[in-house]
Amino acid sequence: MNERRVVPELRQALLRWYGARARVLPWRGTQDPYRIALAEVLLQQTRVQQALGYYERFVTRFPTWEALAAAAEGDVLKAWAGAGYYARARRLHAMAREVAQHGMPRTAARLRTLPGVGPYTAAAVASIAFGEPVAVVDGNVRRVLSRLAGVARPAGRWLWEKAEWLLDREHPGRWNQALMELGALVCTPRAPACADCPLGAWCEGKESPEAYPEVRPRKARAVRVAALVLTGPGGTVLVRRDGASLGGLWGVPLAEGGEALVALLAEHGGAAVRRIGQVRHAFTHKRLTVDVYVGCVDTGGADPAGLPLSRLDEKILALAGEHERDSAPSEG
Ligand code: SF4
């Protein structure tokens, strides 16, 4: 995006588009900070179509900050039922109690002092309800700005600065909603409708929009689990279908959270459960450290030979095989 060309026309083009194409949603067209805050909190982890029903039910049950503040937590959670991520309902409830006691803050800076209110929610409520000229940056805005400027790896600070710079200071609430709406309806993650985009004339990324912003692989999560190699009375290794580490295959029982599995199976015939070592295995989003135990059980299983096993199960059984060879009495 050539900054010299970013002129009032760009803002007018987006606001005109918003006026003509914005979805009619119950939290739009109101200045009521309670309704706006409720919608913003709800939409953090719930899609618009799903949020509609929850929003109506919640606002009917608790129409004001005061009504919400006076409610018991159990009733608040019941009204939130189905929307998920209940921490949001608790945060909103705490926010209501604060507002009922001390009044509604009217600036983003002061809104951020409320429990659980981050920079996005504070800026959204301040700009939409009170007309404060502050920009918002959410996932939709990030995508639109990245494409508009042709910047594949937009840093957090760059995004806030760019959003502030583009902000229509005369209509901040409407502008913020328009930018988010464009990201939701036109500048979508896949197959954006560039031909219908009001910002096409200024967009640096429209030739290959899906290259912006660059999707970086998520860092793999480290997880520690226990695996129990089952052996039959004669010392033969057994696998079970319900023990598969990957659904549908035969395998070795695994349990996240340390030795819970070992303790459980020890109760069911695994009289002599012992740790024989550790294997590591990486999935795309997970790095497993597996503490491997061996236990003799009398509940049955199948010979792993010829059965489809995951790579992880193969590693675990290989360790068990090595251990057995090392501990076998020497023939010499
Ligand atoms: S022209 Fe395409 S890539 Fe650029 S802002 Fe519009 S929809 Fe997004």
**CATH fourth-tier homologous superfamily of the largest domain:** Hypothetical protein, domain 2
State the assembly state of the protein chains: single chain
CATH topology of the largest domain: Endonuclease III, domain 1
Sheet with most strands? 5 strands, mixed
Tell me which ligands are bound: iron/sulfur cluster
Per CATH, the class of the largest domain reads: Mainly Alpha
Features:
332 residues, Endonuclease III, domain 1, Nucleoside Triphosphate Pyrophosphohydrolase, 5-stranded mixed beta sheet
Task: Note down, in words, how this protein is organized.
The chain folds into 2 domains: 3-211, Endonuclease III, domain 1 (Orthogonal Bundle); 221-327, Nucleoside Triphosphate Pyrophosphohydrolase, CATH 3.90.79. 44% of the residues lie in helices and 11% in strands. The chain has helices at residues 8-21, 33-43, 48-61, 65-70, 73-80, 87-102, 108-111, 119-130, 139-149, 156-166, 172-185, 260-267, 311-327, and strands spanning 221-231, 237-238, 254-256, 274-282, 286-296. Strands 1, 2, 3, 4 and 5 form a 5-stranded mixed beta sheet that branches. α1 crosses α11 (172-185) and α2 (33-43) packs across α3 (48-61). The termini are far apart. The relative contact order is 0.09. Iron/sulfur cluster binds at residues 144, 147-148, 186-187, 192, 194, 197, 199-200, 203, 205-206, 209.
